[in-house]
From TrEMBL:
It comes from the Eukaryota. GO terms for molecular function: ATP binding; transmembrane receptor protein tyrosine kinase activity. The lineage of its organism: Eukaryota, Viridiplantae, Streptophyta, Embryophyta, Tracheophyta. It comes from Gossypium davidsonii. This is Protein kinase domain-containing protein. GO terms for cellular component: plasma membrane; plasmodesma. Pfam families: PK_Tyr_Ser-Thr (PF07714).
Length: 126
């Protein structure tokens, strides 16, 4: 299995808040990053056709920051991809999905990711 991410040259929020090599973020910039994260969470809770399970968002600073220093949530479908891969590794044949089920699940995860990207990009301030 290969996972592909957008390249985020600005790293993570943790990098900007805790690493001394990064210049400090202004409060305005921090607020814009928070708004980006809020948009991502809003989509997870209300904008998706499918249930999305996440946890410990409040404790995580692994939010990625795009080239415009806007906050984005990590791709939510990655958990879906890993769940699909894990099911394929079931010990019993009856536990493993058919290739048709794998294809359908991957297509749904991809569509969900596309919807999430569009939803988050609506609010970029450049």
């Amino acid at each position: 299995m290969i996972l592909v991410y957008d390249y985020m040259a600005n790293g993570t929020l943790r990098d900007h808040l805790y690493k001394m090599k990064k210049p400090p973020l202004s409060w305005t910039r921090r607020l814009k990053i928070c708004i980006g994260a809020a948009r991502g969470l809003h989509y997870l809770h209300t904008g998706s056709k499918h249930s999305i399970i996440h946890r410990d968002v409040k404790r995580r600073f692994d939010q990625i920051i795009d080239p415009y220093l806007q906050g984005k949530m990590d791709p939510t479908s990655l958990r879906t991809f890993t769940d699909i891969a894990r099911k394929c590794l079931g010990e019993k044949g009856s536990e493993r999905p058919t290739m048709g089920e794998v294809l359908w699940n991957l297509e749904q995860a991809w569509l969900q990711q596309q919807e999430s990207d569009c939803f988050q990009n609506d609010g970029n301030y450049g």
